[in-house]
Backbone:
């Protein structure tokens, strides 16, 4: 009897469970949750270093009326679209290559990771040099092969700056995508392949009919996660172009930062941050509902 | 069935070569540039080749970037502080998620993970105000305090799955012998999960090392406290950048994390991908 009681207390100390979580929860509440709420409040004020007053929806009205802001939103999604699609495509091809059972595969698998491990800011210093219009290797190859007539500052022109920042972002994001795809591919039960092999299926049809469907949940997950990461990406653009030339690489995050800490217009910055939060919440909701659907489907099968 | 013919092998190796070139070219070029004399780098028309390679830049950079040593120390110091503080918060929370059943368990775990959606950039304004009110602007804490918050969620997730692997029988036996939950956590779970703690700690260290830019340029203007990415970034604004020394300094700055990662990559990759693959 005593024995049983003891086991019961062992399994049901709800108070202790909460107490153990409390420090982390309180920390997050203070440093993340409260600032989120505060951002919403600030977005209705004209807060700056001088002080703040309630201004109603003025920040939002101004923001939504401005043509510049519409362009920024459109540009953000365009930037995301290119970057995420490239990460997924290159990541999938990369994972297939690294999954191949050839000599040196374990070394190859380690060599993909450095862009992810290294601080983004330092990686971008390297890219800044690569993109240098006079002395960088990309312009150098261009000039030697005659593709470029002369020096070309990749970060100095609108379109090329946009493409350059996308490429740098793909470089940072691809390792993670590749590693997750690779892990998923290795998790596919081997007997599936053996059965298909005995039935005479070619390598391509084994990939198309077994590998791809098995890793679809991971592909969907990575698509949404990298959409969120790309959307939040700040350092890459900030270091390469600071959002320039003439705003050609200014995404929502960069614009938020410029308004807030560049001009110290906290209110306007906050209104933009709220838009970012709303969009992120939509992504997350979409992500969770997809995850639940996939889990249900897996459970049914 | 996993045999490839010559043609397929060539295709695979060629693909791997192209793929890895994209991933590694920046590092190779950074290293090459760091070995070339400055006047070779700035030669027009462009030249791939220098006959005068040396480690000269690695000596000169300490003069050009006078605080480089300090920056490197700061990076290490900040990342270590963040990693240790993160672990202190995460160990009890992860244990609770691994072993207890309580109302709103999944909901609260999802809420923790939702933090991962937000980058620091969105929260800069209120964070700036919080830190200003607390008088923490322009100090190490200005970078440590927000840094920890953004690492806690994933760290809880990683450590939780590690704790779940420890057989519960061990704890039950200790409980029968009269040990309290806290004693169990301190004397049984923590020592047994040392490898897991190491992986999570290293994850936090690498994460903290990587996030040292945004918070540093936003909340700290004191050079003495700057971590290396923010410290080097300052030199980008200058009229003439000594690129060979910049690249040398950058490479020195990333060597520590690269080494840590190389030794432990297997565990880190396994830990991170385990959750995703199971789901």
Residues:
């Amino acid at each position: 009897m005593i024995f049983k009681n003891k086991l019961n207390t062992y399994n049901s100390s709800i108070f202790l469970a909460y107490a153990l979580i409390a420090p982390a929860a309180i920390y997050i509440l203070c440093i993340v949750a409260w600032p989120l709420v505060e951002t919403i409040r600030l977005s209705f004020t004209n807060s700056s270093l001088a002080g703040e007053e309630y201004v109603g929806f003025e920040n939002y009205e101004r923001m939504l009326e401005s043509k510049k802001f519409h362009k920024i939103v459109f540009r953000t999604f365009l930037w995301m679209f290119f970057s995420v699609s490239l990460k997924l495509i290159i990541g999938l091809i990369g994972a297939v290559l690294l999954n191949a059972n050839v000599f040196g595969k374990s070394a190859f698998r380690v060599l993909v990771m450095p862009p992810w491990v290294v601080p983004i800011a330092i990686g971008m210093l390297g890219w800044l040099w690569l993109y240098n219009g006079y002395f960088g290797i990309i312009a150098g190859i261009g000039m030697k092969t005659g593709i470029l007539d002369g020096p070309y500052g990749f970060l100095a022109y609108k379109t090329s700056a946009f493409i350059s920042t996308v490429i740098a972002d793909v470089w940072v994001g691809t390792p993670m995508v590749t590693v997750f795809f690779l892990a998923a591919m290795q998790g596919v039960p081997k007997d599936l392949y053996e059965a298909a092999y005995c039935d005479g299926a070619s390598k391509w049809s084994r990939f198309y009919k077994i590998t791809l469907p098995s890793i679809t949940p991971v592909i969907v997950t990575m698509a949404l996660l990298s959409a969120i990461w790309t959307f939040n990406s700040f350092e890459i653009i900030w270091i390469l172009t600071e959002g320039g030339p003439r705003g050609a690489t200014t995404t929502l995050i960069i614009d938020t930062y410029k308004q807030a800490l560049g001009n110290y217009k906290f209110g306007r910055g906050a209104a933009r941050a709220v838009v970012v939060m709303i969009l992120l919440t939509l992504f997350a909701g979409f992500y969770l509902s997809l995850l639940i659907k996939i889990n249900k489907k897996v459970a049914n099968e | 069935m996993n045999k490839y013919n010559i043609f397929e092998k060539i295709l695979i190796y060629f693909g791997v070569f192209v793929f890895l070139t994209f991933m590694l070219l920046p590092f190779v070029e950074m290293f090459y540039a760091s070995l070339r004399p400055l006047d070779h780098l700035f030669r027009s028309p462009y030249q791939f080749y220098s006959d005068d390679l040396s480690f000269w830049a690695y000596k000169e950079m300490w003069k050009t970037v006078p605080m480089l040593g300090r920056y490197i120390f700061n990076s290490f110091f900040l990342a270590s502080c963040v990693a240790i503080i993160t672990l202190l918060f995460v160990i009890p929370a992860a244990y609770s998620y691994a072993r207890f059943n309580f109302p709103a368990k999944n909901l609260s775990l999802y809420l923790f993970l939702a933090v991962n959606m937000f980058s620091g950039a969105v929260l800069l304004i209120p964070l700036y105000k919080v830190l200003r009110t607390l008088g923490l602007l322009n100090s190490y804490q200005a970078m440590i305090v927000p840094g920890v918050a953004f690492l806690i969620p994933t760290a809880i997730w990683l450590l939780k799955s590690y704790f779940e692997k420890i057989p519960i029988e061990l704890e039950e036996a200790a409980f029968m012998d009269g040990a309290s939950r806290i004693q169990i956590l301190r004397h049984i779970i923590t020592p047994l999960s040392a490898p897991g703690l190491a992986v999570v700690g290293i994850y936090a260290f690498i994460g903290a090392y990587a996030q040292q830019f945004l918070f540093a340029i936003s909340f700290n203007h004191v050079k003495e406290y700057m971590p290396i990415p923010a410290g080097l970034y300052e030199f980008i604004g200058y009229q003439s950048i000594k690129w060979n020394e910049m690249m040398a300094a950058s490479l020195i700055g990333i060597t520590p994390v690269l080494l840590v990662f190389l030794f432990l990559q297997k565990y880190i990759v396994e830990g991170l991908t385990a959750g995703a693959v199971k789901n």
